[in-house]
Amino acid sequence: MTMQQLLWQGVQELNKARVPDPELDARYLLLEVFHLNLASFLALKARGLGEDEETEGKCREFMRLIEARAGRTPLQHLTGTQEFMGFEFLVNEHVLIPRQDTETLVELVLEEQKDREKRVLDMCTGSGCIAISLALMGRYRHVAALDVSAEALKVAAGNRDRLLGGYDGGFELFESNMFSALGTDRTFDVIVSNPPYIPSRVIEGLAPEVRDHEPRIALDGSEDGLTFYRILAQEARNHLAEGGSIYMEIGYDQSEAVEGLFRTGGYRDVRTFQDLAGQDRVVRARR
Ligand code: GLN
């Protein structure tokens, strides 16, 4: 059997299970198992696979991963990684898999906050992808990243260790239910957050990869999806320096509601920004 034929078996299994993008996912898993990049795969794919013990083990491992993917385990839980802002982040079932949509938030902050002396807080950091990308690309003086989940913080710490080696600013990671563990006198120039914002009843209708495998605690924004924006609107101002800004990811239909919470809360310059698909994606407000 050739590698191409093995790949094809995988594609067919994924097709049967109606996995979106079966060719792409099967190829990722094949490259992962055989430790190949795309170029070496293309060069080797038509050659016969060896019949040695090691190769047969890899074939079995590939088909095991294919079965898991057919059962709708997210690809990223099988490879253990997801790229975000050009960096490779470790992920597992305890953190939301970084989404490309969220790059809109990071890019907006980098665009508007060019001063490296800024102190940044990332609330609900999960894998740490926002905080670490901002530290690496904005080179800010200090970045603090908080999460309520100790398991998520382990993932974020792994990503810090892996990616932040050359960063010369301060980087803090700690457990906190929203602002609760943060000293009342601690202020930041920039607060960013991608909080859970999916209304509870909507979660049942999401793709099985998200619904059954990603942490509900990272998705569920309660009945109306807005619980964490209410807390942010109420408490962020106590932790923002005068003139400081908060940037939040929002659901495509939450702009009006979230802008309203921040206007009522006395914030200035409240504005919504769109992602690459043209959907409302980020709300920014200033103290
Ligand atoms: N954008 C994510 C999704 O659609 C949700 C992210 C969140 O709740 N913060 O699955």
From TrEMBL:
Pfam families: MTS, PrmC_N
Enzyme class: transferase
Catalytic activity: L-glutaminyl-[peptide chain release factor] + S-adenosyl-L-methionine = N(5)-methyl-L-glutaminyl-[peptide chain release factor] + S-adenosyl-L-homocysteine + H(+)
Domain named Release factor glutamine methyltransferase N-terminal: residues: 5-80
UniProt entry tagged with the keyword Ribonucleoprotein: no
GO molecular function, one term: nucleic acid binding
Domain of life: Bacteria
Function: Methylates the class 1 translation termination release factors RF1/PrfA and RF2/PrfB on the glutamine residue of the universally conserved GGQ motif.
Protein name according to UniProt: Release factor glutamine methyltransferase
Biological source species: Enterocloster bolteae 90A9
